[in-house]
Write a structure and sequence with these properties.
By secondary structure, the chain is of the alpha+beta class. The protein has eleven helices and four strands; from the N terminus they run E-E-E-H-E-H-H-H-H-H-H-H-H-H-H. Strand 1 and strand 2 (16-21) form a beta hairpin.
């Protein structure tokens, strides 16, 4: 098979090309997703000489880059709607029929560009959760882990959101929702297990 045409598709998108094959098929791709087996400079010279005869490996690389470009468009639409985690976005892409290898490549690229940021997602998720629920710090940590956020990023996000006054307010709300049995069973130990800091617990129990 030959590539008979290779031209920029959109002047507003650097590195995006439309590729046309000798069998009439065409595809769009971004050079960001082309591997080292494909040399566009050589392609252009071959095209001037009547067409670029591609190997199966080169065709596979072109089609993979095209699939990544299409998957990136889907990912960017999802990100535009709401902040995403890398794990959550990967699951959404694969649910839409996008191959795991393609999803992984796109997510790595979005992370490099700062369009996807698990630390930023974690912080926004914690703030949103606190506005709707009365969770313990431990519950927040475990829940972020289930969303694919590593422990360090999760802990940093929780510490950033739970300043002294926010954590103290959360502690009061959390105690208020506990049942009588829980309140009577080594309350301080239970609250410490749930992740509340020593400083906040000291502040609370010093007032009792």
């Amino acid at each position: 098979m030959k590539v008979v045409s290779l031209r920029p598709d959109n002047p507003r998108e650097d590195g995006v090309f439309k590729v046309e094959f000798s069998n009439g098929q065409s595809l769009l791709l971004s050079t960001d997703y082309l591997n080292e087996s494909v040399d566009l400079i050589s392609f252009k010279q071959d095209l001037l000489e009547g067409g670029w005869e591609i190997s199966s490996r080169e065709e596979e690389a072109l089609r993979f880059a095209s699939n990544c470009y299409k998957a990136e468009k889907v990912a960017l639409r999802l990100i535009a709607r709401a902040e995403q985690s890398s794990l959550g976005l990967s699951a959404k892409l694969e649910k839409r029929g996008i191959a795991a290898a393609v999803a992984k490549t796109v997510i790595a690229r979005l992370l490099d560009r700062g369009l996807l940021d698990d630390a930023r997602y974690a912080e926004l998720w914690v703030r949103s959760c606190l506005a709707r629920k009365t969770p313990s710090p431990l519950w927040l940590l475990v829940s972020l882990g289930k969303r694919g956020i590593d422990r360090d990023s999760s802990s940093n996000a929780i510490r950033k959101v739970l300043d002294e006054e926010t954590e103290y307010s959360l502690l009061l709300r959390y105690i208020d929702k506990m049942d009588v049995l829980e309140k009577g069973w080594k309350l301080r130990s239970l609250l410490r297990y749930e992740g509340f800091s020593f400083e906040i617990l000291n502040r609370f129990f010093d007032t009792q």
